[in-house]
Amino acid sequence: MKHLIDPTDLTLQEIDDILCLAEKIMANRPAYAEAAKGKKLATLFFEPSTRTRLSFEAAMLELGGSVIGFSSANSSSAAKGESVADTARTIEKYADIIAMRHPKEGAPLVASMNVNIPVINAGDGGHLHPTQTLTDLLTIKETTGRLSDLTIGFCGDLKFGRTVHSLIKQLSRYQNMRFILISPQELKVPDYIKEEVLDKNDAPYQEVERMEDVIGELDILYMTRVQRERFFNEADYIRLKDSYILDLEKLKLAKEDLKILHPLPRVNEISVEVDKDPRALYFAQAEYGKFVRMALMMKLLGLSVDEKDSAKAGI
Ligand code: CP
Prior knowledge:
The protein has helices at residues 12-27, 51-62, 84-91, 107-112, 130-144, 162-171, 191-199, 234-240, 248-251, 282-300, 307-312; strands at residues 40-45, 66-70, 97-102, 119-124, 150-155, 177-182, 205-208, 220-223, 259-261. Helix 5 (130-144) packs across helix 6 (162-171). The mean pLDDT is 95. 36% of the residues lie in helices and 15% in strands. The chain has two domains: 7-128 and 288-312, 3-Layer(aba) Sandwich (Rossmann fold), CATH 3.40.50.1370; 130-285, Aspartate/ornithine carbamoyltransferase (Rossmann fold, 3-Layer(aba) Sandwich).
C-alpha cells in the first residue's frame, strides 16, 4: 500500500484494517500521541477545503507529527505556471507524505507517479475523494454496525459529486447493497459509474427524481450539495441548486433509524432544523474523518503502536 488515489487501490482487507485502527485510536487516543513523531505531512490544496485539509492537519498533529503546506493554488508556485509533477518532486524533499486536492481529475495520480513518498488524493475535480469514502465507511460502520445489507439513497448532484462517485465505487464491493439515486435529469450519476461500477458488481440500483417517493425505504440518506464550481453556466446552477431540501416534514416519511450523511459543506439542501434530529450524523461524520485519516497515514507510513508499551511509558 503506497498511494491512495482511488478507493479501489485498497483491498477490502486493507480498508477493514484502516477502519479497525481508527476504532482503536478513538478508544485510546493518548496511546497514539507520538505514533508519527518526526514525520511531516504536506497538504497541497489547489482548491478550497475546510474539513479535508484541517482534518488531515489535525490528524497528523494528534499523531505527534508536523504539517507544512498551502491552501490555495495562488499561494504556491502553481500561480507562476509550475507543473503538478515538479511541485510534487520538490515537496518530496521536504515531507514524508502528501495529501493533494486539485481541480483537475488525475492530478494526484500524476503527483504519485513522480515521487517515492505516499500521495493521498484529497479530491480531484468531479472524479474521486477516497478519504471522504473512508470517512463515510467509518460513519456507517459505527452507526449501523455493518457494511452490508443496506439500502442507500444518494440525493442531489450525482453528476459532479466526487464523494458520491467514490462511495458508490466502494459500497458496491460489499454484499447486498442496494442503491437509490435521487437527482434531477441533468445531475444524474455519470454512465461510467452505472456501467463500469454498478453493473459490473451486479449492484441493484434505481434512478428517481422525487425524494419523497423513496425516503421511507432508506437505511442511509447521503445528501449532497449542487457543485456550483463545476457548472459551466450560472443560470443552470441557479435553476438546479434548490432541487432538494430535506426538512422535518419530509423526515416524517423516513425510518426511525435512518442515518443522514452529508460530506459537507451544506448550502440549502438540509434545513438547519434537521440538525437536532438524532438521525442527522453529518457533524459526527466530519469528526470520524479525522480518526480515519490518522489511521490511513499510519498505514501508508508503516507506523504502528504497541498500546501496552505506550501505557507503560505513560504516553
Ligand atoms: N467533505 C469535504 O471534502 O469537505 P471540504 O471541501 O471542506 O474539505
